[in-house]
Design a protein that fits this description.
heterotrimer, A mainly alpha (313), B mainly alpha (267), C alpha/beta (326), A: 313 residues, 11 helices, 65% helix, elongated, disordered N terminus, C: 326 residues, alpha/beta, Rossmann fold, Alpha-Beta Plaits, 2 domains, four-stranded antiparallel beta sheet, 13 strands, 33% helix
């Protein structure tokens, strides 16, 4: 079919407007014709980092607008925290000794930091990607020069940072004021806890992301989502400290599943349940799990994107 | 009357049809959610691994409290769980289309999108309850047998009342959903353990304020034939059904007020 | 002997195909699957700086083609290169070279003010500050953005949002701008503003524009090359005038008379299309002749009250084109 331009083309010697970049030739495809400057890997790295930070800050700001939900959520945290502390304190008193190796004060800290941590690592449903796939909005995500995994991870870390300020602070302060909490004795615990919480968020995010990726294959992701939420709820220690379980079960969970890395390990670090070296080892375990889960996400996503079917002709 | 019943039946039938289209998800849903009913029981068992007693109660006794409370909660969740949608309906303005139809708004909210997947949980918690009753090795009397049947229903009525009351707040305060959760799911958490472990301020709110001591604790005391360590007289435990009826009536009145409020402001 | 390298076409598609599997219930438990070809072999070459309109009935494969070109969907067959690269394997590289505006989806951050979206896009696309500022300033002026630059995106009207989307698509200086039904749902004023902007952009020759639309007024205004697809295939590729010529759509002259003609006049090159109103209105169809001759002849005859000349109706032509393929 003949292709003919109906409008007269302006002479090519015209100076390009703000949107212009000048024509490119067949010689260019492998090099970037857009920037005349040589692309250095250092600049590419700083660009990537800045892009990541910007996306994270968007996640942060998005969640800081949910002021009312935050207050209601904190209220819920305090109520549940008070109940859990009562139950676990009764366990410690009646049991005598150290249930699961914790003192009563350590259990109190476990509960209050845990209530705050629930929202930072997000042990509940997260269906944003799945919903966008179902609606076809994921196309917008694929149009950006960023890997969707990186973009969503950045946003989630931003959200977690916001939760650190909004949801962790109040329960911990409540516990400090009204209860006898165990306070870390070693200075190294604080930075180690920070790393641990970051790793826990990453593991949790990777798990949720994997579940959402199933939306590319399944019509309805409720099943896998339930499976994940259930597993991560029980097996991460949010119902009862995993140290209450028999030793073989603990080994199985720690080394065989990513779940303790999401909740139990950071809390054990906070209450100094184990010595410094062991605590550092568990944090390392978390990082290994995070790497594994992310690798899995990359592999599955590659397949998923090819399978994409977007509604509308 | 016959027309309304038929209307509800058709609504429910349509729901079954549309929900079963997502077959795999439905099966997974029904299967997995029933695992969740084991959770509180499992937690109690795990706790007793590290302690011989909890709040002065043994494993059998604590299990009875938990199983009873859970059973009642799941019945309530199945029956009136949908009421939590009120929040969403009011926010999105869908409440108007509900009020326009010639059916009771409460009935519509409950019948629309009826959560059949929750039936699995009810069945499972019923089985657990029966199992725990056997395990508890009770001294059966005719009165206790009747109470054993009535208690879960009373617990269900109590939790339903909390669900409805919590949801009604949405008519005055649109984003109150999460606050209500603190009382509904918090109530379930509270009722699953002996009331003796809690500090008095928590007890006043949940045990007596919301009446949730009657969801599991008091009936269990009566069934076990144990006096209350907190000092309430024995006959109080047998008032469980009455307390449930009062709570449910109060909740319905509150609901009616909420609807009237919505109609008058039309927001 | 040195040759100047050939300028790469902005878009080149050869035998482009996309198949979808559709599941259908056949009886109580069984399900059959069969393959539907949404795009069934599309050949298209678009040069740099061109503006192309891509139209077709619903389900013709327009949006599917666009999604393949932008790297969102993987083609089932054929060859495709956009800005010199293959879309799906080089998705991220391509993303920097193209801008996309979806009529019904948004590229902006919903909760943040429009200004913030623009700022963030600078970092996402790694655009040098000066370039970004220059383009943003141009868009602010041409699209009148200042009034709502600080409003959160979710509070914008559709017209305002579309102006924001186009700006967002152009800030990183793409070479090709894809628009998928950009005027859908817009009020008349916004449509005109948008069309004006795109027309100027296209006329500048810096940006290749590929636009899918249902609104044929878009096509007429932007004066592009027109590609019509139906059932996944290209049925016309040329200018608007060629479309009219090929499908024999004609200009019409509507004549209102004081008294009906006793005998309908015969003028070479003009045929009577229909007679209305008891003979008081006669519609002539012109077969490639100018209207002047016919009007002069009729004026001689006398009794003319009013004359109107109607341009060929593009909707009619396209509808006929669709119907032919159905």
């Amino acid at each position: 079919m003949p292709s003919a331009a109906a409008c007269p083309r302006p002479p090519s010697s015209r100076k390009p407007g703000p949107f212009g970049r000048g024509p490119y030739t067949d010689a260019d495809p492998d090099t970037d014709p857009d920037s005349g400057r040589p692309s250095s890997s250092a600049r590419a790295l700083s660009d990537t980092v800045r892009c990541f930070l910007v996306l994270a800050s968007a996640g942060f700001r998005r969640y800081s607008t949910y002021r009312q939900a935050m207050i209601a959520g904190v209220f819920t945290n305090v109520v549940f925290g008070a109940m859990l502390v009562a139950v676990l304190t009764a366990v410690a008193e009646a049991g005598g000794g150290r249930p699961g190796g914790y003192t009563a004060a350590q259990l109190v800290t476990f509960v209050w930091v845990g209530q705050g941590l629930l929202n930072v690592v997000w042990l509940w449903n997260w269906k944003e990607l799945a919903d966008r796939v179902a609606a076809g909005d994921v196309a917008s995500d694929l149009l950006r020069p960023v890997d969707p995994l990186a973009a969503y991870a950045a946003a989630d870390l931003g959200r977690a940072a916001q939760a650190l300020l909004g949801r962790l602070l109040v329960p911990v302060v409540f516990g400090l004021v009204f209860y006898t909490m165990y306070l870390p004795q070693h200075a190294v615990t604080y930075p180690l806890f920070a790393v641990s919480v970051t790793a826990a968020t990453l593991v949790s995010f990777a798990g949720r992301y994997l579940v959402n990726l199933s939306a590319f294959w399944l019509l309805d992701v409720r099943g896998p989502a339930m499976l994940w939420t259930l597993a991560v709820g029980i097996l991460s220690g949010s119902y009862f400290p995993l140290r209450f379980l028999p030793e073989w079960a603990q080994w199985l969970l720690w080394c065989g599943t990513p779940f303790p890395s999401v909740f139990q390990i950071p809390l054990d670090v906070a209450v100094e349940r184990t010595s410094g070296a062991t605590a550092a080892a568990t944090v390392l375990l978390q990082l290994v799990w995070a790497a594994l889960m992310f690798a899995l996400c990359v592999v599955v996503q590659r397949r998923a994107v090819v399978r994409l079917v977007v509604q509308g002709g | 009357m016959g027309d309304s019943a038929r209307a509800y039946r058709e609504l429910v039938r349509a729901q079954i049809r549309s929900q079963s289209q997502y077959r795999l998800s439905f099966a997974l849903d029904a299967g997995l959610t029933s695992v969740m009913t084991l959770l509180e029981i499992l937690t109690v068992i795990v706790l007793f691994r590290v302690t011989p007693e909890l709040g002065g109660f043994s494993l059998r006794e604590a299990l009875l409290i938990a199983a009873l409370c859970e059973f009642g909660f799941h019945i309530a969740d199945l029956a009136v769980g949908n009421i939590e949608d009120v929040n969403r309906y009011v926010r999105l303005g869908l409440m108007d289309s509900v009020l326009v139809r010639p059916l009771s708004p409460l009935g519509q909210l409950l019948a629309t999108d009826f959560p059949f997947r929750k039936v699995g949980r009810v069945v499972q918690s019923a089985a657990l309850y029966v199992g725990v009753l056997v395990y508890a090795d009770l001294d059966w009397t005719p009165a206790r047998a009747v109470l054993a049947v009535v208690a879960p229903l009373s617990a269900a009525a109590l939790f339903s009342a909390v669900f409805v009351a919590g949801a009604t707040v949405a008519f005055w305060w649109i984003d109150s959903g999460e606050i209500a959760n603190a009382f509904t799911y918090g109530g379930r958490q509270f009722g699953s353990y002996p009331v003796t472990v809690y500090p008095s301020w928590l007890r006043s709110v949940f045990a007596y304020g919301l009446g949730l001591a009657f969801a599991g604790y008091q009936p269990a005391l009566a069934l076990l034939g144990r006096p209350d360590p907190l000092g309430t007289p024995a006959w109080v435990a047998w008032c469980t059904p009455a307390v449930a009826a009062v709570a449910w009536t109060a909740a319905l009145l509150l609901w009616r007020t909420g609807i009237r409020q919505y109609r008058s402001t039309g927001s | 002997m040195s040759r100047t390298p050939r300028v790469t076409p902005a878009i080149r598609a050869t035998g482009l195909r996309k198949d979808f599997t559709v599941k259908r219930k056949a009886g109580r438990l069984r399900r059959t699957t069969h393959t539907v070809a949404a795009v069934a072999g599309v050949d298209l070459t678009v040069g740099q700086g061109e503006t192309v309109g891509y139209i077709g009935p619903n389900g013709a494969g327009k949006s599917t083609t666009l999604k393949m070109m932008t790297g969102v969907l993987t083609p089932s067959g054929g060859e495709l290169s956009v800005c010199g690269v293959e879309p799906v394997p080089r998705r991220k590289q391509l993303a920097r070279r193209i801008g996309v505006v979806f009529g019904q989806r948004s590229q902006l951050w919903w909760d943040l003010p429009l200004r913030e979206s623009f700022r963030m896009l600078r970092y996402v696309y790694a655009v040098p500050e000066a370039e970004h500022a220059e383009r943003l300033a141009a868009c602010r002026e041409l699209l009148d953005l200042d009034a709502f630059l600080d409003t959160p995106v979710r509070q914008l009207s559709l017209g305002q949002r579309m102006r924001g989307e186009i700006t967002a698509a152009l800030l990183h200086g793409p070479r090709v701008l894809f628009l998928d039904e950009p005027t859908i749902g817009l009020d008349v004023v916004s449509k005109q503003a948008l069309r004006g902007f795109l027309a100027d952009l296209g006329a500048g020759g810096d940006v290749t524009i590929m636009l899918t639309t249902h609104d044929l007024a878009d096509i007429e205004r932007l004066c592009p090359r027109l590609v019509v697809v139906d059932h996944g295939r290209v049925v016309h590729d040329g200018t608007l005038a060629e479309l009219h010529a090929r499908h024999g759509s004609q200009r019409r002259v509507v004549v209102d008379l004081d008294t009906p003609y006793d005998e309908l006049p015969h003028v070479p090159g003009a045929k009577v299309d229909r007679v209305e109103d008891d003979g008081h209105r006669v519609v002539f169809a012109l077969d490639g002749v100018p209207a002047g001759g016919l009007i002069a002849r009729l004026a001689q005859q006398g009794g003319l009250r009013d004359v109107a000349v109607l341009e060929p109706d593009i909707e009619e032509v396209v509808a006929r084109l669709y119907a032919r393929g159905a």
